[in-house]
Design goal:
The longest helix has 20 residues, at 537-556. The strands form 5 sheets. An 8-stranded mixed beta sheet has the order 7-6-5-3-2-1-19-20. The chain has helices at 95-98, 101-107, 117-129, 196-205, 230-239, 253-265, 275-286, 300-304, 325-330, 355-367, 388-398, 410-422, 469-481, 514-532, 537-556, and strands at 27-33, 42-47, 50-54, 70-72, 85-89, 113-115, 136-138, 144-147, 150-157, 164-171, 174-178, 209-213, 244-247, 269-273, 311-315, 343-346, 371-373, 402-406, 437-442, 445-451, 457-460, 463-467, 483-490, 502-506, 561-568. By secondary structure, the protein is of the alpha/beta class. Bound molecules: zinc ion. Residues 92, 94, 97, 159, 181, 384 line the site of zinc ion.
Length: 569
């Protein structure tokens, strides 16, 4: 009987050793990102001494990671083998699937990129900004190509960006299907549904391992179709008394198409705001993925001259990214001044981790008198990922032997595993693992084979992997506690202080006069230390920093970052 079974508690596999050299004829699958998090998706396939990469994305930092721009997958497991890489398959053009490519190509620029037309256009434009001209290989659904020893077949999938592909990978070891990101919208705007007949055909052939998107596995039932958002969007346009500002991902071509269609119906003109929005919509329109009626989209200068009732602005920043147009408008730090009677439409998802930033924006706009419409109060967003019901259909159509849930936090991976088991897949064949755990496929049979490094690589400005967790801890302490610099002038020969200690503080808050007591405490410590040890400059610096730190912590419950500079005379 197929009873509902609950998935076992998450298995960490923290103690696993590095995998042994891969046996002849076997295929190794190593996820380097996207398992245990939403973002920086990347999986490496190894067979006959060659590597194939599927996706190479970024993860966006959270509030506790100040100053970090993006987080990359850890390339250290493949760094010494970049010459063996036969290609990078990009399943679709979202940042969490393509954003890491420029950093990987910095290490080897001529790795061929294999992707659909729109995905290639997006990644090529991105690489141009990094001054990299990639080698590309365009594919479409139905294509079957060889990349080294990997036989690849591409299948159409529906998602929140056009031209998404799933990829079937055949080797002597077996058949693997990777969905990329997908959902099963039966009425997508472009009529391009997820290729369920293709899935069924692969199911008949026998899928040995199924890598499947988990993002919405804990959402019950089925997603509504994209086109069902039209009435709610229309309602916004019908009732908005002044300007309408729409925020969406710069890649959500279908959502933006719906906004353009509504603008046309209601006689408004549209302006695109933000570099990535302007660039991507230009590409999508040029390639025929976005239909822009003549004269609908106008330059910002022309738009500003129109009455407020005729204006629609489409901008980025739907996740509350501080530098994006939407955040700056909310902070009154943008030429577009949102106020009384304006309508702000957040036609986008709420990615876990971004909640605070988004609610801050909603509150700010509301305070300025704007009406904010979002997925919490109107049907203006539908997710791009298959929910539990759709996943169940998928498992029943494919009947895979083994399953590796990908793309999700632990709760999503575990929920996806539970659905797989409920459809009858053997519990031992459902691998809930995290980044770095490798699975070997030998003659169609999958098992865990080891673990490689899969750390978060932090990118700060243009430096990659230099910022560390320790640096982030310092930044958090600086933000909460401030900093104190102590300057001490010391006579080299005697080690005695020749001037009173000086304190310089930033962001450190304490009652006036604390420096006097602090100086006395430090001087006492120096005096008693002098009797027992000889001292050099570094020792004195350490002693001052420690003494001050201990005193502030005990007496004032403060832990600022302390820097001591000793100058010898
Ligand atoms: Zn996606």
């Amino acid at each position: 009987m197929r009873n509902a079974r609950t998935a076992k508690p998450a298995r960490h596999h923290l103690e696993l050793p590095a995998p042994a050299a891969l046996k002849k004829g076997a295929m190794r699958i190593t996820p380097l990102g996207g398992l245990g998090e939403i973002g920086r998706n990347m999986t490496v396939f190894e067979h006959e001494g060659k590597l194939l990469i599927v996706d190479c994305g970024v993860l966006f930092p959270e509030e506790h990671q100040p100053g970090i721009d993006v987080i990359l997958p850890d390339f250290s497991a493949i760094r010494s083998r970049l010459a063996d890489v036969v290609g990078i398959v990009l399943t679709h053009g979202h940042e969490d699937h393509i954003g890491g490519v420029p950093y990987l190509l910095r290490e080897r620029a001529d790795i061929p990129i294999i992707a659909s037309k729109l995905t290639l256009a997006f990644i090529t434009a991105k690489l141009e900004e990094h001054r990299i001209k990639p080698q590309t290989r365009q594919v479409r659904e139905g294509d079957r190509i060889d990349a080294g020893p990997f036989d690849l077949e591409f299948l159409a999938v529906s998602h929140s960006i056009p031209d998404g592909l799933a990829v079937a990978i055949r080797t002597a070891a077996g058949l693997v299907l990777h969905t990329g990101d997908f959902k099963m919208d039966q009425f997508p705007l472009d009529g391009r549904t997820t290729d369920l007949p293709g899935f069924a055909r692969l199911g008949d052939e026998g899928v040995d391992l199924f890598l499947v998107d988990s993002t919405n596995a804990d959402v019950p039932g089925f997603m509504i179709p994209e086109e069902d958002l039209a009435p709610a969007i229309d309602q916004v346009f019908r009732t908005a008394p002044r300007r309408i500002v729409v925020s969406s991902f710069a890649s959500h071509v279908h959502r933006i198409q719906q906004i353009l269609d509504a603008a046309e119906r209601h006689g408004r003109k549209v302006g695109f705001v933000g570099r990535s929005m302007v660039r991507n919509m230009g590409i999508a329109a040029d390639l025929g993925y976005l239909r822009i009626p003549d004269g609908l989209v106008v330059e910002m200068k022309a738009l500003e001259k129109l009455p407020a009732t005729d204006i629609v602005l489409i901008c980025t920043g739907s996740q509350g990214e501080p530098m994006a147009a939407l955040s700056r408008m909310a902070n009154k730090d943008h030429v577009i001044d949102i106020g009384e009677g304006d309508t702000v439409l957040l036609a986008s998802s709420l990615i876990p981790g971004n909640e605070n930033a988004i609610y801050r924006i909603i509150n700010a706009f509301t305070r300025w008198g704007a009406n904010v419409v979002h997925k919490g109060n109107a049907k203006v967003h539908v997710s791009g990922h298959a929910s539990a019901g759709e996943l169940a259909y998928c498992y029943n159509i494919l009947r895979p032997t083994a399953v590796l849930p990908v793309h999700g936090e632990w709760r999503h991976l575990t929920a996806n595993a539970a659905i797989a088991m409920r459809t009858g897949i053997d519990e031992k064949q459902v691998f809930v693992v995290e980044d770095g755990v490798s699975i070997d496929l030998v003659a169609g049979s999958a098992r865990i084979s080891g673990r490689v490094a899969a750390d978060h690589i932090l990118v700060d400005g243009t430096t990659m992997g230099v910022a560390t967790e320790a640096a982030l801890t310092d930044r958090r302490v600086l933000a909460e506690e401030g900093t104190i610099t102590v300057l001490a002038i010391m006579e080299h020969a005697s080690g005695r202080l020749t001037e009173p200690l000086e304190f310089f503080s930033r962001g450190f808050v304490e009652e006036a006069g604390w420096e006097k007591t602090a100086a006395k405490t430090i001087e006492d410590a120096l005096r008693s230390a002098a009797e027992s040890t000889s001292r050099n400059r570094e020792d004195v610096e350490t002693l001052i920093t420690r003494t001050l730190g201990r005193w502030l912590s005990r007496r004032h419950r403060r832990n600022p970052v302390i820097t001591t500079i000793v100058v010898e005379e």
